[in-house]
Amino acid sequence: MDHQLVTVTLHASSLLKLVLLGAGGFLFSMLLTPLYTTVAYRWKLWKKPRTTTVTGTAATVFMKLHAEKHKRHIPTMAGIIFIISVAVLTLVFNRSRAETWLPVAAFVGAALVGLIDDIINIRGDGTGKAGLPSQLKLLLITIVAVIGGWYFYYKLGFDSMQLPGLHHSALVLGWFIIPLFAFVVVATANAVNISDGLDGLAGGLTTIAFAAYAIIATLEGKYGIAGFCTVLVGALMSYTWFNVFPARFFMGDVGSFALGTALGVVAMYTDTVLLLPVIGIVFVAEAGSVILQVTSKKLRHGKKIFLISPIHHHFEAVGWPEAKVTMRFWVVGQVAALLGLALFVMGRYM
User: What is the pLDDT of residue 127?
Assistant: First the structure.
């Protein structure tokens, strides 16, 4: 069997910067948390649970599972903490037109869409779907993604994607890279948003995914992207510290849409779109469960595949405690991230 030597050059100064950015993200978010908490409780930024499903029927199973939780007031929009932390630290210490302008802009743009949705939720009466209509949210996130795809192609010059097993060649897409970019970003944004349904779940899963992409970007020599990911990892570790069961606050759509959008952009930058469903397998399962459930109810006269979707609620409904679902999904996410890293190394260096 042939043995191939893999040599990777890592600059000590760049690695130190990555560590400092991650630590900075954690500490800055920790400092912002008391300020957010004070404002959230003073302004009563309480999360209102949904009372209807995507198909418009009463969300009876969901309310049964989480009625006790929502008896206490839990603030939402805590994603603002890591939005500010990541944006400020990146623009001050890791600003790069070639690598970080677009991720930060998409991150903040998606956050604004989520912020509007959260404000409507807070100001609502607690009935219905509690936020922007899903079609309007999809349209707004798509606009952000298309603008990002345009910049990715016309301003940064990306026009191809790497295929598995082709080390020195790539599939040239030309301007078709724009709809690909938009699809990846929109799909990932919605998948992460759907996954944000249990205490600590989305925070932990995105921490794992961005940590994996920080390693991938570092191996590719894209230290700007790696720094963006490490700031996110640090900030998300701070957020998850307070969001684990029982959650002190929720990130809201302002956080979940921003995180999903950023993850999709990072996958495009690192040319690892085909690895994203592996590293983010839990997000795929979450979004897939919703699609299957809605399709089944429409085509099979209301019959369901799961007791409730997304799938994390299904496991709750069959008797798993919320914290157990979260931790087991984290384990799956960790295994998937390691598998994704292994596939990346094999595809690029072997």
Answer: 57
144 inside domain: yes
| Percent of the chain at pLDDT exceeding 70 | 89
Position of tokens 């999360």?
Answer: 47
Answer whether 245's CB lies under 8 Å from 197's CB. no
Which residues are registered as beta bridge partners of 58?
52
Distance CA 220, CA 344 (A): 11
User: Is residue 292 included in any domain, yes or no?
Assistant: no
pLDDT per residue as tens digits for the range 12-58: 899 999 999 999 999 999 999 999 999 999 999 988 776 666 655 66
Residue 148 has pLDDT above 80, yes or no: yes
Q: Is the pLDDT reported for residue 196 higher than 50?
A: yes
Residue 270 counted as domain residue: yes
Residue 34 domain flag: yes
Could you tell me which residues are beta bridge partners of residue 52? 58
Q: How many domains does the chain have?
A: 1
Which residues, in sequence order, are CB contacts of 321 under 8 Å at separation 6+? none
Tokens of 217: 């970007």
- Residues spanned by the domain of 72: 12-276
Q: How far apart are the first and last CA of the chain?
A: 13
Average pLDDT (263-291) is: 97
Nearest to 14 by CA among 217, 215, 223, 219: 223
DSSP per residue, 83-114: HHHHHHHHHHHS--TTTTHHHHHHHHHHHHHH
